[in-house]
Amino acid sequence: MKSIRVSSRFAARLCVALFPCVLALSFAGCVRGPQPTAKFEDVMVREQENDSRQDIRQINEMLLATMVNSPPPTDYILGEGDLIQVTVFEDNNLKSEGRVGARGSVTLPLLGPVPVQGLTSYEAERKIEDLYRAKYLQDPHVSIFVKEHVSGKITLMGSLKKPGTYDYFARQRLLDVLALAEGLTDKAGRTVQVRRKSDDPSHPKTLFVDLDEIIKNGKTELNIEIQGGDVIYVPEAGTVYVDGAVKRPGSYAITQTMSVQEAIASAGGLSKIADDNNVKLVRLSSNGTREVMQLNMRDSGDSSGRNIELKDRDVIYVETHGLKAMTYGLRVSVGFIGFGFDPPSTNQ
Fold it and tell me: What architecture (CATH level 2) is domain 152-237?
């Protein structure tokens, strides 16, 4: 009987000790029940991120295929500043050495200035042979040796796996040079900016190329040829590009609920030659086409469009006021390739 009482007392104490734990576990089980599902907005964000990664993977796969299938570079493209040696085998007195000047020409004996910029070494040799054949030699043979490569550089910047400056010795297209940087990062946007020298050095040309148009819609004409000296910039997704008559044109990160007016303010505001009654918002629609919306920043009402919420890859372009441009003595030149323009001087 004594051992039984001890066991009963022990059991009673054990029940008293375990009761709070059992109660807590039971309560937790009741409260927990089926777990709530994630918010719809969170699910949508994750789906968009997965779609974006898949798109980037598809683009990078095409870039890799482009790099594997493209023929190896065979000839150097001559450009400003290159030092070349020209040998005419039939007449050693015609052997010369000179730099390609700012106007793209090299000066040769008897011929004077000969335009060679943008030609490969082989093309320049054939051109010089034809010029000597026309007036001076019966069957000339010309050889060009590039002693100093100056123009053969391109710069890759932004959301690329290996950005940097690369030697550029032969003609290549946009996808080829993006492959040099081993493709895009997961955060990359789809609109590539190609900044290029223009006739006016103070006003470089900016070309916009939509990679989706090339990859998904097969618009190979947008896979433009790259030139020596080009700067290729891939912004992160979630950016808007502001250009035209603003003080600091460029790419800007879209803050939460960023409006057109706020984006222009981020670009330093309108310049002195801006036409605030003529602002364009270019947006990629769901069906892949570009929509151009005409905005009026002078009007403070809702119908002006100044408070439109911006989306990734939007482009804002502020036109130049004709009378103001004439007053400041500026020349406007606009040219499109995909979507590109050569803006006037607007940082005033």
Answer: Roll (3.10)
pTM: 0.58
* Contact present, 213 and 159 (Cβ < 8 Å): no
Higher-confidence position of 49 and 8: 8
Closest CA to 306 of 255, 262, 268, 261: 261
For residue 115, give every residue at least 6 positions away whose Cβ sits within 8 Å of its Cβ, in sequence order, or none.
103, 104, 105
Domain residue limits, the chain: 83-148, 152-237, 238-348
**Residue pLDDT, tens place only, 208-260:** 888 888 887 888 898 998 988 899 999 888 888 898 889 988 888 887 778 89
Q: What is the pLDDT of residue 66?
A: 62
Q: Return the SS3 of 42.
A: helix
Neighbours of 237 (CB within 10 A): 21
Are 166 and 177 spatial neighbours (Cβ–Cβ below 8 Å)? yes
Long-range contacts of 293-297 (CB under 8 A, 24+ apart): 295/260, 297/260, 297/261, 297/264, 297/270
Which tokens belong to 320? Answer: 């130049």
Average pLDDT (101-113) is: 93
**Residue 328's pLDDT is what?**
54
Domains 83-148 and 238-348 share a fold: no
**Class at the top of the CATH hierarchy for domain 83-148:** alpha beta
DSSP 54-111: HHHHHHHHHHHHHHHHSPPP-SPBP-TT-EEEEEETT-GGG-EEEE--TTSEEEETTT
CB proximity list for 88: less than 8 A, separation 6 or greater: 94, 95, 128, 132, 137, 140, 141, 142
